[in-house]
Amino acid sequence: MIKKWWHDKTAYQIYPKSFLDSNGDGIGDLRGIIRKLDYLKDLGVDILWLSPIYVSPLADQGYDIADYYNIDPRFGTMEDMEELIEKAKKREMYIVMDLVVNHCSDEHEWFKKACADPDGEYGNYFYIREKKDGKSPANWRSYFGNSVWSDIPGTNKQYLHSFHKKQPDLNWENPVVREEIYKNINWWLDKGLGGFRIDAIINIKKALPFQDYQPDRADGLCSIQTMLAHAHGIGEFLSEMRDRCFKPHDAFTVGEVFDEKPEELESFIGENGYFSSKFDFNETVFGGSEKGWYDARAITAEDYKHCCFAAQKHVGTTGFLSNIIENHDEPRGVSHYLPAGECAPEAKKMLGGLNFMLRGIPFIYQGQEIGMENTVFSGIDEVDDIATLDQYQTALEAGYGPKEALDIVSRYSRDNARTPMQWEASANAGFTEGTPWLKVNPNYKNVNAADQISRNNSVFMFYKELIRLRKHPQWKETIIYGTLEPVLEDEKNLMAYCRKGPRTLLIIGNFQKDAREIILPRIPEAVLINNYEEVSLDEDKVTLKGWQFLVMEI
Ligand code: TEU
Ligand code: CA
User: Fold this and answer.
1) For the whole model, what pTM was predicted?
2) Is 199 in the pocket of ligand 1 (CB under 6 A)?
3) CA 72 – CA 29 distance, rounded (Å)
4) pLDDT at 314
5) What is the distance between the alpha carbons of residues 529 and 503, in angstroms, rounded to a whole number?
């Protein structure tokens, strides 16, 4: 295997709007990020992925870009961005931006020109079609609910949007569009970016010509994923983008890839893959339902373990997964994967440790390192996220009352991850001196960074330890390149695996609150990480406390 510069890195996702506000307008910004570079360096992370900060109406929080070449003034200026790249580099850190090119904003000049003259040059930048007898070209449902088709005012035409109607899909079949995208990617990479996280990328290839599929809800529409299963040939676009942009810059790229076909793995993240890595969403999507969040099934410890192992087995040594327990689209990992009400620091550490030691690139989402939890919504008016608002409606339509519907969406809301970062115990968690754009999680007095960096046994210190171990010359090779073998797989509520390289590590987590006794596959030589002060070990017999997590050399 050819070694790449990013193999040994640990990544950290920043959601700029909620990270740190430097000027009191209630919105996090680039100067806020610059201020916290030393905090991040101290944690030990190397790659910083920033969710979008380009010019945007923020209909979908920046995932709707109106100008790919400029920074939204709410986030700062291009000088701030250059300074951030520069100052990160000084600390041997890399900045990775979000690449959102399945769609742009309806306020992008391309789309405005397309609407003004749908049959002209810019019309072909998008998917624009004539309605037939008032009917849309295909019955697909957008990710945010309702049809993917919306009218172009003053015409009989419609345009396609896989997401919100303010996010028109770009027509990747048009080579001129692809050229524009590559030009922009290279422009940013030339500025010194480390690479990109690539948004919603599987959606760029549509099954053409447009057609209806079997409806899956009473609205007569079908999930857009049904269409994706019929779409073939995405590789032509992705390999072109790799060859024209990523490869010449030796960039690190991580694809937000859902719904790829299993046989495509190697072409996506193999040695000469389209991307360096892709996220493992096996656990994320578990229990999801076509019908909506109201029909989703909770995930158990056993499910979590099997999802992780299945993903690891599928990838093996073909490439590197990027491992997460949460991101800006998901509830907080500790609230989602630990049983309800079980949010002890030890449990948070166990979950983090089990995920972190998997083979792949560990990603930490802002606040995860201090164990941030889901927030509390006292009413639907406290929700900002468009996906949550849509799912709330869906739950009401399915017959749930307002209170139940709020409970349902509270479990899965994307806003759980988007509440401001909790820096301190002071007002608004030290995120802003103004009014935060989204309410701070009420638990900030107990869960905040200032407290945790001052305490040796905090969740923050535990993540720091994990990162240090990953970088340690003695273990590095094994943790990065070693294989993964599940062990004691039939032990209920126990997740354990070996990482085998030049050394052998045993990672074990007691995924329950009750203590238990386990016979280890071998007598351990040393305990490298422990989320408790002590461990009761007698030869190959270990008595694990509730949520105890150990990394041992065996
Ligand atoms: O997400 C793509 C995606 O398909 C889902 O994560 C989706 O947002 C979620 O299921 C809705 O509940 C990416 C971004 O991560 C997300 O924030 C954007 O909203 C979306 O693309 C559109 O750009
Ligand atoms: Ca600000």
Assistant:
1) 0.98
2) yes
3) 10
4) 97
5) 15
